[in-house]
Amino acid sequence: MTIAVTGATGQLGRLIIESLKSKVAADGIVALVRSPEKAGDLGVEARAFDYSRADQLAPALAGVDTLMLVSSSEIGQRAVQHRNVIEAAKQAGVGRIVYTSVLHADTSPLDLAAEHRETEAALAEAGIPTTILRNGWYSENYAGSIQGALMSGALVGSAGEGRVSSAARADYAEAAATVLTSAGHEGKTYELAGDVAWTLPNLAAEISLQTGRDIPHKDLPEADYAAVLKGAGVPEGFAHAIAGWDVAASKGALFDDGHQLSALIGRPTTPLAQTVKMVLA
C-alpha cells in the first residue's frame, strides 16, 4: 500500500511522515510537496504537488492507494485548492482519502470552518471512501502569545473564560498516521481535541508558574486585541483573524470533551504544561 501526504514539508505534514515511518516501511510513503528539493530530509519519495496546479496533481498521485489531504495553509483559497486535489484523486484512482478539517466544522462559529465545510461536501460528492479528522487547536498556536506575554508582562486575548481543548501538533499527527495505517475508519468523522480543556487565565497561571514571574491575563475587546497584535508586527488582516478566533473560542468553538484523539493514539494527549515548557526553552 502506498500512502501519500500533501503538505509534507509543513509543520503537521512532517510530523505525519515521521509517525508513518514508525508504522510502515518508508518506501510505501510519498511526500507531496511544492518543492521536492526541500524534502530530502524526510527520507521518503518526494513528488512535486501544488494545490493550485490542477494539471500537475493527478500524475503525482499515480499508484497512490491512500491520500492524506492536509488542508492548505492558504486561507481563502482552500476550497478551490482542495477540490483540485479531490478531482485529481478521482482521476488517479486513489482508493481512500483522509482529510484534516476543523473541530465541529458543521456547527463551528470560526470563520475558518466555511472552507472546511465546502471540502467535506466535495469529498462526500466524490464518492471516494473518506475519513474526516476534525482537528482542534494546536497548543503550539499559543507560542507567540506566550512569548508576547513574557515581553509585555501580561497575556492578552479576547477569549474570556472560553475553554480550549488543545493538544500538541504531534498528537494530531499520530492520530492521522493511525487512521492511515489501520482499518475500520472509512466513512467516519472524528472530533479530535485534547483531553484537558483550559482557559487563557489558566495559561497565564502556567506561564507564571514556570517562569516564577507574575504574568496576569488581560481580556480585551476584539478590536483592541487586534490592535495589540498589529502593533506587535502581525499583518492587519491576520491580526483581525486571530482576534476573531479568540472571540469564537469564548463561544465554545475550541472546546470538546469527547476524548476521541486520545482514544485513537492510545494514550493521554500532551499536557499544556509540556508545550509551555517547550516554548519557554
Automatic annotation (TrEMBL):
CDD domains reported for this sequence: TMR_SDR_a
A Pfam family matched in the record: NAD_binding_10
Annotated ranges, domain NAD(P)-binding: 7-181
SUPFAM superfamilies assigned: NAD(P)-binding Rossmann-fold domains (SSF51735)
Gene3D superfamilies reported in the protein's UniProt record: NAD(P)-binding Rossmann-like Domain, UDP-galactose 4-epimerase, domain 1
PANTHER family hit by this protein: NMRA-LIKE DOMAIN-CONTAINING PROTEIN, QUINONE OXIDOREDUCTASE 2
Protein name: NmrA family transcriptional regulator
UniProt source species: Sphingomonas endophytica
Lineage of the species this protein comes from: Bacteria, Pseudomonadati, Pseudomonadota, Alphaproteobacteria, Sphingomonadales
